[in-house]
Amino acid sequence: MEEVLVSSVVGVKDQAKLTVSGVPDQPGVAAKIFTAIADKDINVDMIIQNISVEGVSDISLTVPMDEAKKAVERLKDVSSSINAREILVAEDIGKVSVIGVGMRSHTGVAAKMFKMLADAGINIEMISTSEIKVSCVVKKDDVDNAVKILHKGFGLDKGLGSGKK
């Protein structure tokens, strides 16, 4: 039996992207940032840290929109203690994910996803992957179209048994 490559496409619109810029590239800094968030029971979804340039980097994370204000307050507190430059907030974002156990043993799922989004003029702001999921942060207004395009592109609009490789 052929393995299903992508079994579902999911879109979420109630997200905010928070970026702590100018974070010192030192051991323990990320722990301080995420401990401050965790201490307030704020759920973090995606985390991206850029490569360090001249001793500083940027850390971006996504949180549910209803927790964004509380997260920004915590990030402001910790940012001053670690001498980070600033906090940037984007509340007009959402997330689209393709999910499938078959992705563990097949290449090209991310490339295909990114190409479909690019062809539709949808810009990717963040990317996160695991063995069975590829998620992209996009503009909130693009989430529904992205889900529709990816659903069709991975053959999930053809009923049971589609999305196979």
Give structural notes.
Strand 2 and strand 3 form a beta hairpin. It contains 4 helices and 6 strands; from the N terminus they run βαββαβαββα. Helix content is 28%, strand content 33%. It is an alpha+beta fold and 165 residues long. The C terminus is likely disordered. It has 2 domains: 72 residues, VC0802-like (2-Layer Sandwich); 77 residues, Alpha-Beta Plaits (2-Layer Sandwich). The protein has a 6-stranded antiparallel β-sheet.
Query: Which CATH architecture of the largest domain is right?
Result: 2-Layer Sandwich
- Class by alpha and beta content: alpha+beta
Q: Rough shape?
A: elongated
What is the H-and-E element order?
Answer: EHEEHEHEEH
Q: Helical amount among residues, as a percent range? A: 25-40%
CATH topology of the largest domain: Alpha-Beta Plaits
* Estimated radius of gyration: 18 Å
**Helix tally?**
4
Largest sheet: 6 strands, antiparallel
